[in-house]
Amino acid sequence: MEVTASMVKELREMTGAGMMDCKKALAATDGDMDKAVEFLREKGLAAAEKKAGRIAAEGIVDTNVSADGKEASIVEVNSETDFVAKNEMFKDFVAAVAAQITKSSANDMDTFMAEKWSLDDSKTVKEALASMIAIIGENMNIRRFEKITAANGFVVSYIHGGGRIGILVEIESSVNNAEVQEAAKNVAMQIAALSPKYVDQSEIPADFIAHEKDILKAQIMNDPANSKKPENIIEKMLEGRLNKELKEFCLVDQVYVKDSDLSVGQYLANVSKQVGAPVSVKRFVRFETGEGLEKKSENFAEEVAKQMGQ
């Protein structure tokens, strides 16, 4: 029997389950609505997905680094309330998710969610999440993850505020001793505190710089005190303001929080001299719980049609 969008819509309204889960349930039961409901209940998806309308904007960020420091992951898992985010069962689940991501070959969320769950290979990650939702009684969401593989150094992690902010930093160096590890931790704390966007100015997109330049020039020209200044002076003012602003975005140009006489770049240069080998930041990832989250307004009919390819 052909599964139609209207059938999926009806089953979703009855169970609160996800559209693709409803489609699969109807396909597995030859379009029998009652059997499809039972199919979803047996999978633990109906009970869990009924809570999916409530936004999950709390939660925690966690990290996992392999024993040799070469592989690492960072993940954000959301919950509805801060109370659940502090629950030890929830924390253990997030830690297990991070550990699995480190070893996983998945590069996107759909692939990862379809993997066998590391703690129970009779379930997928998605089914393990559904089970946790049913046990805890709140909607939860594995929102995002990233992985880092260090080819010429190691990765260090840092968790701030009980999981509110998580950091991964890839350090490039032929030396990996206590001094370099301490420097890496200090850099990770810098990233947590001052939230840079890039390692250095070479990473900043040209269109971003052009946009910022336009804004700064408008600010300068809107000041009556600058109306009679020559163009070359205006350009020098613009260059000065732009450089100052870009330094705030770039990790190595930021003032080092533990020694305001140094930039982060200068601090790492000092460490490099002390250990006798270059020590630099290759890349970093910073997750802050709930950043950018807002509840989406969805056109249900369009959503169903898009998911079903109709």
Automatic annotation (TrEMBL):
Q: Which SUPFAM superfamilies match?
A: Elongation factor Ts (EF-Ts), dimerisation domain, UBA-like
Question: Where is it localised?
Answer: Cytoplasm
| InterPro entries recorded | EF-Ts_dimer_sf (IPR036402), Transl_elong_EFTs/EF1B (IPR001816), Transl_elong_EFTs/EF1B_dimer (IPR014039), Transl_elong_Ts_CS (IPR018101), UBA-like_sf (IPR009060)
Q: Does the keyword Cytoplasm apply?
A: yes
Q: Which GO terms describe its cellular component?
A: cytoplasm
Per the record, the domain of life is Bacteria
Q: The Translation elongation factor EFTs/EF1B dimerisation domain covers which part of the protein?
A: 72-291
Tell me the keywords, alphabetical order: Cytoplasm, Elongation factor, Protein biosynthesis
Q: What does this protein do?
A: Associates with the EF-Tu.GDP complex and induces the exchange of GDP to GTP. It remains bound to the aminoacyl-tRNA.EF-Tu.GTP complex up to the GTP hydrolysis stage on the ribosome.
Q: Which family does it belong to?
A: Belongs to the EF-Ts family.
Q: Mind telling me what this protein is named?
A: Elongation factor Ts
Q: Which organism is it from?
A: Variimorphobacter saccharofermentans
